[in-house]
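Justification of resources, computational component.

The compute hours requested in this renewal are based largely on the per-chain cost of generating structure records like the one below. Each record pairs the submitted sequence with a full structure-token output. That output is archived, and it is also reused by downstream analysis tasks.
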Amino acid sequence: MPRKTSIAVAAAVTAGLPLALAVPAWSHGYTTSPPSRSYLCGQHKVQNCGQVQWDPDGVEGPKGFPSSGPRDGTICAGADGRWGELDDQRGGTGWPATKVTSGQSFNVSWHFTAPHSTTSFRYFLTKDGWDSTKPLTRNSLDLTPVINKSYGGRQPSDRDVHSGTLPQRQGRHILLSVWDIADTGNAFYQCIDVDFG
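The structure output for this chain reads:
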């Protein structure tokens, strides 16, 4: 290769390297137990999921929920159109739901592919009487978290588990998980379908 061409190629690679290193990771994390909608799509246990089936751990959107963050109707997808199928209630009963019991302790397990410095993990549950045929809204949720785990900026371990006690509910509900990132303007959103019977 001629010397001038070699220098030009080396300069282009050197100039592009900082940009390549600055690109954020596309994969991050999801709940595995109970399984979230994005995890079920990634495992191909649910069909017609769109892009999330290839990136179930990338459901990220603006943080600040509930005072800001994703607008109503786009919460399960983190207000990102790429994951829009997660907001589809599929007739109110189309997502597989994990059977749970009011008043019992429960665990939520996460799997991380790219852990981040974390402010908190918070979990919100829909109210009795919410409309399960319509996309999730703040008005559908009890905005007092059923679990609130503060991390103070530390990174979670590969498979963190968060524990809490389920309040009194009947029928099908959504448990919304919000993973607040400490050093970016984003959070990760996971919708988990549960059935209290």
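The first strand starts at residue 29 and ends at 33. The chain has one domain: 31-195.
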